[in-house]
C-alpha cells in the first residue's frame, strides 16, 4: 500500500549505532526528511548522502532532521558515515521492516537482470507526524534542493 500525503507516518524504531536507537516519535515537533536508499558506498547513494551532508546547515535552519534508511548493518553505516563525514542519522533496517512499512520495496533492473530491492524514495514528515510530501523513484541529482524548496514553501507559507 503506497503512502500518500496526509497519512500518519508509520512509527518505527531503528538502530543507528551500537546500542543506540531512534524512533520517529523522537522527532515530533520537527520536520523529518526520511529517505530510503539501496546500499552504502555505492555511487548514487554516496552522491545523495553527500548532498544531504553539504546542505545540512540549511535543512537544520528549517527545523528538519534527516534520516537515511537502508538494509546495511550498523557497522556499514558507521564506516560510510566516517568515510564521507556524514552529519545525519543512518538507520539500519537489515530485516527491511521499515522499508516494508513505507512500501519502498519493488522490482528493479540492473544490466538487464530483474531483482527485488529498495526503490529510492523520500518522505517529508511534518512536525505532527503526518506525511507532507512523497518522492518515489528519486533521481539523485537535484533531489536535496527540491526537498529544501518544498520545505521552505511549507514552512514559510504558514507564517
Strand order of the largest sheet: 5-4-3-8-9
Unreliable segments (pLDDT under 50, ≥5 consecutive)? none
User: Structurally, how many domains make up the residues?
Assistant: 1
Q: With helices defined by DSSP (H or I, 4 residues minimum), what is the helix count?
A: 5
User: In percent terms, what proportion of residues is strand?
Assistant: 25-35%
What summary fits the major beta sheet?
5 strands, mixed
Estimate the mean pLDDT confidence. 91
| Alpha carbon gap, first and last residue | 34 Å
Number of DSSP E strands = 9
Indicate the CATH architecture. Answer: 3-Layer(aba) Sandwich
Report the CATH topology name. Glutaredoxin
Structural class assignment? alpha/beta
Described by the principal axes of the CA atoms, the overall outline is globular
CATH homology superfamily name:
Glutaredoxin
Helix and strand element order: EEEHHEHEHEEEEH
Give the CATH level 1 class. Answer: Alpha Beta
C-alpha Rg (nearest Å): 15 Å
How helical, in percent, are the residues? 25-40%
Structure description:
There is one protein chain. The chain is an alpha/beta fold. It has one domain (13-157): Glutaredoxin. Helix content is 31%, strand content 31%. It is built from five helices and nine strands. Strands 5-4-3-8-9 form a five-stranded mixed β-sheet. Strand 8 (121-125) and strand 9 (131-136) form a beta hairpin. The chain is globular, with a radius of gyration of 15 Å. The chain starts with 12 loop residues before the first strand and ends with a helix.
Amino acid at each position: 500500500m503506497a503512502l500518500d500525503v496526509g497519512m500518519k507516518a508509520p512509527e518505527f524504531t531503528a538502530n543507528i549505532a551500537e546500542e543506540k536507537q531512534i524512533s520517529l516519535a523522537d522527532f515530533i515537533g520537527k520536520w523529518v526528511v526520511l529517505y530510503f536508499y539501496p546500499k552504502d558506498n555505492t555511487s548514487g547513494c554516496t552522491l545523495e548522502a553527500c548532498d544531504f551532508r553539504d546542505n545540512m546547515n540549511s535543512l537544520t535552519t528549517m527545523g528538519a532532521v534527516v534520516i537515511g534508511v537502508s538494509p546495511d548493518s550498523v557497522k556499514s553505516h558507521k564506516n560510510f558515515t566516517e568515510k564521507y563525514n556524514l552529519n545525519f542519522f543512518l538507520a539500519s533496517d537489515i530485516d527491511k521492516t521499515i522499508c516494508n512499512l513505507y512500501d519502498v520495496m519493488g522490482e528493479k533492473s540492473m544490466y538487464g537482470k530483474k531483482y527485488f530491492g529498495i526503490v529510492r524514495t523520500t518522505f517529508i514528515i511534518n512536525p505532527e507526524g503526518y506525511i507532507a510530501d512523497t518522492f518515489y523513484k528519486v533521481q539523485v541529482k537535484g533531489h536535496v534542493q527540491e526537498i529544501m524548496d518544498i520545505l521552505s514553501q511549507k514552512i514559510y507559507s504558514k507564517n
